[in-house]
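FW: tagging you since you asked about this chain on Friday. Here's the raw sequence from the shared folder, copied in full. Didn't touch anything.
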Amino acid sequence: MRAGDGCTDTDSNPADFVTPIPTPRNSSSTAASCGSAPPSSVSQTAGVDIDIQPVLSLALERQTISFGTAVAGDTPAPISEQVTVVSNGATGYTLTVHRSAFAPQDLPLGISLNGGATQPVPIPPAPDLVVGTKSSPSAGNGDPWPTSIGFTGPLPVVPPGHYTATLTYTLIG
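HL: got it, structure written out here
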């Protein structure tokens, strides 16, 4: 009988044939499979990924600005808030700011841009205050816009309590 269940063919008869214990077979016996036909095609997969950076991004120096405790007539010291802009847009961008009114009663919140005079921060529907513009893409680490948040004058006489507002910086590319 041919060795390897009839599948061995090395062109050497002593290696290709063996004398097994007789095992009768007929046409209904299961045929030995000597392997499959060579594949007509093969496939492999490769993972592909890419990280797409935003065209515009905005980072604040601090997420919360707290002036602590004050009394009417005080003008709390301004607090720095550096805004960093990253823009990949060829035409540049404009950075603006607006705020909500303080609750329960409004207070005169302002912003100083690049060390200049403190200007009132507008409340919608008034147009946003332009912090700055640039007509080209930002530098590698972004463009810093140094600002200070403070009050445009002494705090008015208001009932004691906790007063809150929200500043919103908007980046338009």
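FW: The chain has a mean pLDDT of 89.
HL: agreed, and Residues 3-6 form the longest helix (4 residues).
FW: great, closing this out.
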